[in-house]
Amino acid sequence: MKNIIKSILSALVVLGMIAFGIVWFSDVTERKDSREKFAQFYEEEENIDVLFIGSSHVLNGIFPMELWNDYGIVSYNMAGHGNRMILNYWVLMNALEHTSPKLVVLDAYMLSLEDKLRDLEQLHISADSIPYSQTKVDMISELVDEEDRKSDFLWKFSTYHNRWNELEEKDFISVTTPEKGAESRINVAKPVAIQYFDSNYKIPEEDGLGVEYACKIIEECQIRGIEVLVTYLPFPENTGWQGESNRMAEIADEYNVDFLDYYTLLGQVNVNTDFYDENSHMNPSGARKVTNYIGNYIMLHYPIEDQRENEAYSDWHEDYEVYTEFKKENIRNEEELKNYLMLLGDKNFSFGIYLKPWNTIASYPVLVELLAGMGIPLEEVPNEDIFIVVDNQTSQRKELRLFETLETRFGDFSMFYNDDGHLELTNSEANSMIITHSDIAIVIFDNSDLSFVDQAKFTLQDAELEFEEDEE
Q1: Contacts of 238 (CB under 8 A, 6+ apart)
Q2: What is the CA 95 to chain-centroid distance, rounded?
Q3: How many CB atoms within 10 Å of residue 443?
């Protein structure tokens, strides 16, 4: 009998080791896209008050960490590239098993599309991190038509066991997005010319799968007592997508839910500076503006609490510090002038900027508009060597001229020709900078602690601005 028990125990130990090995192997070989985006959501112990669902327009256009810092809104961005309405529905249904939001914000882009998925790869990003449940099984059953592919989404080992030769360092460490599910896309693109369609113009097809599942999302939320806000985030477009916004307005009215339509939200951004690509996604500048507008709207119209003083969410303050460092690294790593200026359109940073006599700068419309968005209308800048300090904390703008000293919260600045004949800018709290041969030079500070963030110099000759020159 003892030998039998010993054999059984040995077998159980071996089986346990095999099971542990399979789980470990599955975790290591799994692609990390989904985990990076959703791990913080599924690991969050406290309730998430607001969920954002939609396509990449939401993914790149709504920043939960900005909502936290500005309004104390606890939210998560559940959107994904190319997510159709039916996928939005299932992402939400799975999310509702882990949190009880007070508000769901649904974006209506792709309302008119009839296909279930853009591709299976995108489904992996949305689905891989979802814990196993009957809801997940139902999701995969409806979205994946090929029977032999369903297991790829329900058992990670089946999907990723052949990735062993592709593994990188990040596969062995836990990496999560500092953006609570959002994704910053850094670029300033020249947009297509926007065509404005009449508000009576609607998607021409009869209502299909997209409208069906948009309605199911609203109905499910209303059954559960969850408020719904519908949006149609802005993008430069001239092909008639605005018809979706107009159709969504009718649906929102039918269900008595608020709707921030395309035209309303387009008015919050500058189409010449706030988009990553020519006809689709917002960059961080546009996203911050739209996020702020929606955050203010939420606090005015829905019973969402400011959780910044709630001890239960104290770790969100730590998460925001990580997010701020992420934004700083984006600035430090940026080498293109227009993108660098775009990233400075952030009220959490203050800066000083040297502008060489600006006749040449004025010939680039994108620079003129970026500077204006940073609080520096070029027509108000003297046409001489000038250094301007913009304090976004106090909303003050100060100017420094040659051979003067300027006192600021970030130290004292001086600008002069040194013994070698070079134009030099010094700051009592940061390194000095030789700005001879520079058209634009910038020093950046963190408003929260007045610390130095970065400094950079640019010449217009080297800047990638060719497409911005006026065409005759």
Answers
A1: 192, 193, 194, 195, 279
A2: 19
A3: 25
For the record, the structure tokens of 172 come out as 């062995």
Angstrom CA distances, 440 to 121, 270, 401, 413, 433, stand at 43, 22, 15, 16, 12
CB-neighbour burial class of residue 157 (10 A; exposed 0-12, middle 13-18, buried 19+): middle
The closest of 327, 328, 319, 326 to 40, measured between CA atoms, is: 319
Question: Looking at 313-370, which runs of residues are DSSP E strands?
Answer: 349-355
What is the bridge-based pairing of β-strands 103-107 and 50-53? parallel
Q: pTM here?
A: 0.88
What residue has token string 């900005």? Answer: 66
Cα 17 to Cα 186: distance, rounded to the nearest angstrom: 45
CB 261 within 8 A of CB 108: no
Taking the C-alpha atoms of residue 329 and residue 444, their distance in angstroms, rounded to an integer, is 12
Residues shown for the chain: 472
* Those residues with Cβ within 8 angstroms of residue 243's Cβ, 6 or more apart along the chain or in another chain: 112, 197, 201, 202, 203, 204
Residue 51, both tokens: 């969920």
User: How far apart (Å, rounded) are the C-alpha atoms in residues 259 and 250?
Assistant: 10
Structure tokens at 371: 């500077």
Please provide residue 377's backbone torsions phi and psi, each rounded to the nearest 5 degrees. -65, 120
- Three-state DSSP state, 457: strand
Per the listing, tokens 């990003």 go with: 125
Binned average pLDDT, 10 residues per bin, the chain of 472 residues? 64 53 44 86 96 98 98 98 96 97 97 90 91 94 88 67 51 74 96 87 82 97 98 93 94 98 96 94 98 98 98 97 97 96 95 87 91 92 92 94 94 93 88 88 95 93 57 36
CA–CA separation, 285 vs 349, rounded Å? 13
Identify which of 457, 453, 455 has the alpha carbon closest to the alpha carbon of residue 438: 457
The DSSP line for 294-346 is HHHHHHHHS-----TT-GGGHHHHHHHHHHHHHHHHHHHH---HHHHHHHT--
Six-digit token string for 244? 């979706």
Look-up: residue for tokens 């963030």? 453
Residue 354 CB partners (closer than 8 Å, separation 6+): 385, 386, 387, 415, 425, 435, 438, 440, 441, 442
- Give me the phi and psi of 227, to 5 degrees please: -70, 150
Helix, strand, coil fractions of the chain, as percent rounded to 5: 45, 15, 40
**CB-based contact 277:189 (threshold 8 Å):** yes
How far apart are the two ends of the chain, measured CA to CA in Å? 96
Residue 132 phi, psi (nearest 5):
-65, 130
Q: Which of 260, 377, 305 is nearest to 72 (CA)?
A: 305
Query: What SS3 class is residue 424?
Result: strand
Report DSSP state, residue 274: S
Q: Report d(CA 196, CA 77) in Å as an integer.
A: 29
